[in-house]
Amino acid sequence: QIRRKLLGLVAEDGDAASVLGANFAAGFVAGSLAAGVTCPLDVAKTRRQIEKDAQKAMRMTTRQTLVDILRSEGPKGLFTGVGPRVARAGPSVGIVISFYEVIKYALHQRNMS
């Protein structure tokens, strides 16, 4: 939806750079939002991976880990590292989406010829 709205703004006047920019911006926003929303799950995964007690690690569930973090550190603990995670994911997804759309367009043009 973000991509469609951005492409609607450039409409018929859009050149390749504006279409590429719209694809990048849409991917950037989507990647940033997804990284922010899934951050608590990433924190729980990391905590489970670094658990030193092998027996405890085998018994840990994601839900239990999230509750433990919430009790000991509060909501802030669930979003530890959200800044760097979002800063990395936004540009990465933007680049992937842009590249995907360019390749899709090129293949479509090739098949039309």
Automatic annotation (TrEMBL):
The keyword Plastid does not apply. It comes from the Eukaryota. It is a multi-pass membrane protein. InterPro entries: MCP_dom_sf (IPR023395), MCP_transmembrane (IPR018108), Mtm1-like (IPR045315). Solcar repeats lie at residues 18-106. GO terms for biological process: mitochondrial transmembrane transport. Keywords: Membrane, Mitochondrion, Mitochondrion inner membrane, Repeat, Transmembrane, Transmembrane helix, Transport. It is found in: Mitochondrion inner membrane. The keyword Ligase does not apply. Gene3D superfamilies: Mitochondrial carrier domain. GO terms for cellular component: mitochondrial inner membrane. PANTHER family: FI19922P1-RELATED. Belongs to the mitochondrial carrier (TC 2.A.29) family. This is Mitochondrial carrier protein.
